[in-house]
Design goal:
Structural class of chain B: mainly alpha
Strand content of chain B: under 5%
Number of strands of chain A: 18
Order of helices and strands of chain A: HEHEEEEHEEHEEEHEEHHHEHEHEHHEEE
Largest interface: A-B, 64 and 73 residues
Structural class of chain A: alpha+beta
Distance between the termini of chain B: 13 Å
Strand order of the largest sheet of chain A: 8-9-10-1-11-16-12-15-13-14
Largest sheet of chain B: none
Oligomer: heterodimer
Helix content of chain A: 25-40%
Chain lengths: ~500, ~325
Amino acid sequence: MASKFAGVVAALTLALAACGSGAGSAPAGSSAKPDAGATIEIGSLYEPQNLDNTAGGGQGVTEAFNGNVYEGLFRLTDQGKVENLLAESHEVSNDGLVYTFRIRKGVTFHSGKALTAADVKNSIERVIAEDSQSARKSNLKAIASVEAPDDATVVVKLSSRSISLVYNLSYVWIVNTAAKDLATGEDGTGPYTLGSWKRGSTLSLKRFPGYWGSQPANGGVVFHYFTEATALNNALLTDAVDIVTSQQSPDALGQFTGNPDYKISDGHSTTKLLLAFNDRKAPFDKPLVRKAVAAAIDDAKLLQSVWAGHGSLIGSMVPPTDPWYEDLTSLDRHDVELAKKQLAEAGYANGFRFTLDTPNYDPHPTAATFIKSELAKVGITVDINVITADEWYTKVYKNRDFAATLQEHVNDRDVVWYGDPDFYWGYDDKQVTDWVTQAEQAKTAEEQTELLKKANRKIAEDAASDWLYLYPQIVVASSKLSGYPINGLNSQFYAYGIKKG
Amino acid sequence: MAPYLLRRTAFLLGSLVAAAALLFVLLRLLPGDPANALLSVGATPEQIAAARRQIGSDLPLPEQFGSWLAGLARLDLGISFVSRLPVGPEIAARLTVTVPLTLLSFALAVAVALPVGFVAACRSGRWYGLLLNGISQLGIAVPVFWIGMLLVAVFALRLRVLPAGGFPRDDWAEPGRALTSLTLPVVTIALVMSASLIRYVRSATLDVLGSDYLRTARALGESFAGAMWRHGLRNASVPVISILGIELATTFLGAVVVESVFTLPGLGSMLVKGIAEHDYPVIQGVLVVSTFAVLVIGFAADLVQRLVDPRLRAHVGGGRP
């Protein structure tokens, strides 16, 4: 009897082993010269929710589709520059309220239809529509109307000047007006078309033979989605993927450092870790208290312990890829004695106690524990209150029911939130509000840059929040790969330049 | 048998509705607003209100429950809050991973546990009987994800004979590749599962070994193997079958962890994502389908038990539900 069963076991084991060795022994093709037909296997932690960026597609669909499947009138390059894409040129009226765009000729959608100005008009209107869930909707609120006087011209009229319009249009996908089912399909003008999307697993892009520009340097790409950094790194280690779009596990870097098979690129991200105070309520309504807290926390030590030498300190809200960046770390020095003095001056010589609302995912809990121990040294007691992302939205973002909170702010050019007294942190400085408003209505980019630099400096002087550090943007790739973006601005990941071999 | 089947089916449907109601209420007791999960920093109050209208979370709860139940009756599991895609077809797609994973693991675990448990019982006094018993104890104590990670470290990262995770893009178009992807997950689940199964098989066999009827059969001149085959196995299998039913259900549910470790696009990873995103229709859909599966498995185990053990059939209308 026992032997009968043993036979079954042996057979099963053999069967499993046999099919195992079959695929395992087929290594990833490694030719010496670049292979234009090669498929690039991309590993990512950000699977799209759906494929429509005006219906909550999220970060994942931006990563996979922006510039790859859909194109805007303009393109934001990996270096942070804005250049013409589907727009050939544009003119601005003297009062800055009328923008006239010339649409590129000879562009067709993946479905075969030619691109017309009507599609552009419709695409812009989709983003600003009432039911749009686009994260960029509020940036386009100055748009009063969009018209398409002929097939190659689009006229956008504004209710007030908006110097960022061109930049903001780089996020507006131009979609075929007739396209249906954008949540699971697409009809864009980019160099790739959607191959297949297997939810929870992979999304593949194929070359679009009718692309108006030059063909991609590869034969297609496949995004492999992971929910966990360890599994993602294992996939890279076993050649299941060629590149990881954004390394989120600093501990794992050791496996790739010094290994000639892999290349680690340290780019600039736009994600900032903030200790955001509720600037409306005591004790954080006093700039002196906020400055004391900022001075008491050793940001460099925190960054070192979380990211082990990657990432950077910026001292304010603006990252180096924004045009109005300035190194303001001198305004946020670590100085425990100064912190004590400032606390005494503000009337808190014996410290105080506050609750720190901490999102329950990394790196927030780590940072909270660190802040608690740093602030204990100046007599401040921190009660850490761990909450889910969802509770954060309700408690902190909507109800403003908090003393201080930790939060990562991912977007570029988001220093402008300090000009909005209604934003969750409640920073209310008339001058900063004016500068931010004037900057958006500026006539030239230089003027805009000057004004936002001033605003950035002022919020740093007031310690409107404590900017703990700027995240690193680490791309780990097989050393056979070249031509990939390393900054990943706003989660974009242009795949068409990637070469293998 | 027919009244029993009828009664059992009614009980199954009743349980399902009760479970659905419980699920619905429990989910609504969680703090937070599903509309939040759809938006990012910078969302305006109007956008949040619009999101709530779109997903219907602004409607009164009884109304939401009613429309969900009505959908269930039509086998329509609703539309995901987050992806805006129907939940039913996605669950169906994910079952093509989870069901084979569960069944293969189960088959492997049974194939290992039956002979090993049997040997461990027959040779309970010998050193290898003790060893097998010890190993199975260890298997019960070790968490399943840890075994998974260990197998990945050895077979994927070091020996490079099996993939570390993932599932072929074309599903089962090439069964060999799909099976390859499932190998480590299947072994992981089977290891943990057989560890506890071995113990049940062992104790059921020990009971039989000490029984009077076996001793009588031997006394009447039957060989040990003959007596075991004719009288022992059938008796020992009754408690084992009910455990198998529970174990199969547990495997199905335990796939959640294993699918996460191996990045398999199954029901488990769908549930985890749904919970993270407050996607009620997804959570409800996955849990209703799992509940249904567990109830059906329990039902099936009961039926098999009745087929094996005539004593259970004789007591129709007796104490058993």
